[in-house]
Amino acid sequence: MSDATPSGIRLVYRTMQLQAGAAVLAGLLFALAGTDDGLAALVGGGIATIGTLILGWRMFATGVAPGAVLLSGSLLGTVLRWIWLVGAMWCALSWLRLPALPLIAGVAIGYAAAGLVTLRSR
């Protein structure tokens, strides 16, 4: 029996936990510049965290499967994550009128945290 699916799901959860922590930290640091900036950084980190959830959900939805099925799940998850990222950032900028720089910084910090998890898991 393969252990790839449960360990992959654990990696997604670990990544999301670190991203959420990084989002809160970024929000607190940007809150020193203003409430709107802190909220924008927190929302940006949340966008990155939910994007990771979407990607992990699609990547590991099939369980143990042939390579072509896993590849298509990974590609679909990446496409859905990009759709989420663009749509959520557009909503945050246009509807919520959040400042752009802290929002983008929150997303970048969230994805940098995800990169740290993947480097550490090797």
Structural commentary:
The protein is mainly α. The chain has one domain (4-120). The chain has four helices and no strands. The protein has helices at 4-31, 35-59, 67-94, 100-120. The longest helix has 28 residues, at 4-31. The chain is elongated.
Condensed summary:
This protein is mainly α and 122 residues long. The protein contains four helices and no strands. Helix content is 84%, strand content 0%.
Q: What is the share of helical residues?
A: over 70%
Radius of gyration: 16 Å
The figure for the number of domains is 1
Principal-axes shape call: elongated
> How much of the residues is beta strand, in percent?
under 5%
Q: What do the pLDDT scores average to?
A: 91
List SSEs in N-to-C order. Answer: HHHH
**Termini, distance in Å?**
21 Å
Total beta strand runs = 0
Q: Mind describing the biggest β-sheet?
A: none
Return residue spans where pLDDT drops below 50 for at least 5 consecutive residues.
none
Which class do the helix and strand fractions yield? Answer: mainly alpha
- Number of alpha- plus pi-helical segments: 4
